[in-house]
Amino acid sequence: MSFNAIFSLFLILTQLATSSSLTITDNLPTPYEVLAGYNFPIGVLPKGATGYELDKTTGKFRVYLNGSCSFSLEGSYQLKYKSTVSGYISENKLTDLSGVSVKVLFFWLNIVEVVRKGDELEFSVGLASADFPIDNFYECPQCGCGLNCNNVELVTKLRSNPLVSSF
């Protein structure tokens, strides 16, 4: 192999090693730490994230969970996460989400956007949205049992604004 070929191969491998795709290792931030870096509480993701990819220039991300996940919160809301959740992240905003849905009456609706507004998070399913206090999301829910695992109830109760706003 010529010197130019070896040098070109080295440059290509260096580019791959410094790409912005990240997976969980000892020296990289976890998906939960990345969320906190964009001013989101860690509880918008359930426990069990195994890795992620983030393009810091565009905000495009993918989070990988340990399989699909579903749970109820306070018996009122049923949530489902696919094994991959993706979208765009910026300060106080998650947009173009896919992989997260909520059951409303008898229908599953995709949560497409989450916006932090002060001490509240606004979850949008497109034409309708609902606001929840941010302190509901300081703990990560667990697949299967949410925040009430092992029949131990957490001090924080899920509180919501009973009014659902429409756009």
From TrEMBL:
SUPFAM superfamilies: At5g01610-like. Pfam families: DUF538. Keywords: Signal. InterPro entries: At5g01610-like, DUF538. The keyword Signal applies. Residues 1-19 form the signal peptide. It comes from the Eukaryota. PANTHER family: F22D16.19 PROTEIN, T31J12.3 PROTEIN-RELATED. This is DUF538 domain-containing protein. It comes from Dovyalis caffra.
